[in-house]
Structures are given as C-alpha cells and as structure tokens.
Amino acid sequence: MNIIEIKKINDLAVVLNAQLVIHRSDSLENENIENMWCISVDKDHLKTINANDFVAFIDKLLLRRQQQIKKKLLNGPITFYLWFDLMADQLRLNFIPGHVEHLPFGCMIDLVERPNEIIKSFIKKNTRSANSVKESIKQQSEENDFILSVYVKYLD
Question: What is d(CA 18, CA 34) in angstroms, rounded to the nearest whole number?
Fold first, then answer.
C-alpha cells in the first residue's frame, strides 16, 4: 500500500510514474500492497485543489495504463477501482489483474459510472469540520448497512 499526502495536484505524478505489479495468480496480496494508493490532501492546501483536478488526474492515469497495455508494457486485462475511504479520510485506488467482478470489500457496493461523485465526496469531507464528519459516520451506521460507492474501469 502506497500512502501519499499531496499539497498540490502535481504531487500525484508519483502515482502516474509508479510501476504496476501484475501477476496472473489467485493471490492478489502483492497487487494490493504494490498497486494500491491511499491519497490524502494537506488541509492547508485544499483550496488549491478541486474535484476537476482529481478527475483529470484519474483520466490521465487510466489513459497511461491503457497505452501501456496496448504497447505490451503491461499484461491486460486489468481492473481499476477507486473509492473514498471515509474512516481513513483517503481517496483510494487500485489496479488488479483480470476482469474482477467481486471486489475485496466486506460491505455492499454501489458501482458508479464516473469517478466524479467519489471525488466530490472526498473533497467535501475534507472541507467539513471533524464534528460534522463524526455525525455523518454515526448517522450512516445507525441508518443501515454501509454502502460504498466504487468506480470500476476495465482496461484491455
């Protein structure tokens, strides 16, 4: 697992340039350790980063990985997925081999068509006070089972 706190959107270049570990086996342990990125934003610099910056970054990242597959630099297919970890206050993303239909989450999943909703939730939470976030988490757990929004993209 790779953890990064960014101060400006260009800090995400390290994710763009990182090598993927893709093995064709039943074990996803190495892929989860090497390919998962946990992104947080330095609170003092949040005003300089917006949701559109993150969407553009995700689009660029997916385009780069797709090109690597086409050039045979990576063995496809690969499943990309993105989610907002509310408890850790991190935008998370991962790449795993194959067309994976059952993602490694222990909760119900809501698949979204675009990453925008997830990114907006991440930005919104980072601009709210700690007390309002605790209330939101408490309310969510009291209402019903937690449902995680996840964006999935298959790269061939």
Answer: 9
